[in-house]
Design a protein that fits this description.
It contains 13 helices and 13 strands. With 386 residues, it is mainly α. The chain folds into two domains: 222 residues, Glycosyltransferase; 127 residues. The strands form six sheets. The chain has a three-stranded antiparallel beta sheet with strand order 3-4-5. A two-stranded antiparallel ribbon has the order 1-2. A two-stranded antiparallel ribbon has the order 6-9. Strand 1 and strand 2 form a beta hairpin. The model has no long low-confidence stretch (mean pLDDT 96).
């Protein structure tokens, strides 16, 4: 199938980005009085909670600055990015150098988490805004935040463990996935870690310990040496996470002259988790499933979240671009069509975030402390440039 046959879907991603997604957030989300971004919006864009998630500020700043750097130097995009970044600078850092997770509208701290995902997305924001403005101090701050993320998330003893390590030690795929992507973003912004060996170490650990060819699955949590933990957490599969990691690897393959080993790994991960995650009765991707096809612990496992579908749109298009396999193009069209039929709101813009298994809407939320202008506009931006 020629790539030209996918141009209607690719073209819609670019047009929706500029005509639907960005206008929704720029009109309704930006806090013109206090700075930063509201993300808790209903269908019409009405703010229903004024608290501000720190990682959402970083994600929005990165997204808008990246659009400014790569698509068009629109002043409203840069202004929105800087509003979010400056809100972070003024309010998001604790006295110990770590970042909060949730703030009030005026920036007073509400919650701090053991994870370093606030630091991760702030790292991306500072890198993209440094490129947009030429500010070297922001590039330095980006590198510092990258080091903080790696120290907290990847070094032994850096983060309070989720469960007693003396009883059942474990590790998750999330820090490796995010750490690898941070390095890619910093490289593309012209600074930071450009050593491919560091990215390779993340990929190698994921392949060695989290990919299970004998089961056709990518695990979320394993023992420190990669053994399967035969409990709820150890059997948990997250198709969205695994497919997101797959396209990060496929993206890396493109940066390395279509590296065949990385293409093979990324495609295998995508194929396994598509087979595991795609709902053959109603369509769409399950939020969670179980390695042994037992009932998952999460009661929302059959729900359809917006973000795994955006990751699958990118991953299937990249897989087709790199392999020429027609089944990847068919998957791209399939997930693109299903997502736009069920999540998109052509009347008021943006996407709804949460559906029941049958595709009916679970809530009218367009955003909350988890959903903001990141996964959807990132997909629309990335796909439009393939």
């Amino acid at each position: 199938m020629p790539l030209a046959e996918l141009q209607p879907q690719i073209g819609r991603c670019r047009s929706d980005l500029e005509a639907s997604t960005l206008p929704f957030w720029l009109e309704h989300g930006l806090d013109l009085d206090q700075g930063g971004l509201f993300t808790s919006l209903d269908r019409d864009g009405i703010v229903i909670d004024t608290d501000k998630a720190v990682w959402a500020q970083g994600r929005c700043a990165w997204m808008l600055a990246t659009l400014y750097n790569t698509l068009e130097q629109k002043e409203e995009w840069l202004a929105g990015a800087l509003s979010c970044l400056e809100f972070l600078e003024q309010h998001a850092f604790d006295e110990d150098g770590r970042m909060f997770f949730l703030l009030t509208r005026r920036g007073r701290p509400l919650r701090k988490r053991r994870y370093a995902y606030s630091e991760a997305f702030a790292c991306m924001a500072y890198a993209a805004c440094a490129k947009a403005t030429g500010r070297e101090d922001w590039a330095v701050r980006s590198r510092e935040l990258f080091d903080t993320f790696c120290r907290v998330s990847l070094e032994p003893g850096g983060m309070v463990p989720k469960s007693d390590p003396a009883t059942r030690p474990s590790k998750g795929i999330g820090p490796l996935m995010i750490g690898m992507h941070l390095a890619q973003v910093m490289r593309e912004c012209g600074g930071g870690r450009q050593d491919e060996a560091w990215i390779d170490s993340c990929i190698d650990e994921v392949e060695r310990d989290f990919c299970k060819p004998e089961h056709g699955a990518v695990l979320e949590t394993v023992s420190p040496t990669g053994e399967i933990l035969h409990h709820f957490d150890g059997r948990l599969l997250n198709p969205g996470h695994a497919i997101e990691m797959a396209w990060f690897i496929l993206h890396e393959a493109r940066q390395r002259d279509d590296d065949p080993r990385l293409i093979s790994l990324g495609v295998r991960m995508l194929d396994w988790m598509w087979e595991r995650g795609w709902d053959k009765e109603y369509g769409g991707l399950f939020s969670f499933c179980d390695l042994s096809e037992l009932p998952p612990q999460e009661p929302v496992h059959q729900m359809k979240y917006w973000w795994p579908h955006t990751e699958a749109i990118i991953a299937t298009l990249l897989a087709y671009k790199l392999t020429g396999e027609s089944y990847q193009a068919e998957r791209f069209k399939q997930v693109h069509a299903w997502a736009h039929e069920h999540f998109a709101d052509p009347e008021r813009g943006e996407w709804f975030g949460y559906l029941n298994r049958d595709g009916s809407r679970s809530t009218g939320l367009k955003g909350n402390h988890w959903k903001g202008p990141f996964h959807l506009p990132r997909m629309q931006w990335y796909v439009s440039r393939v």
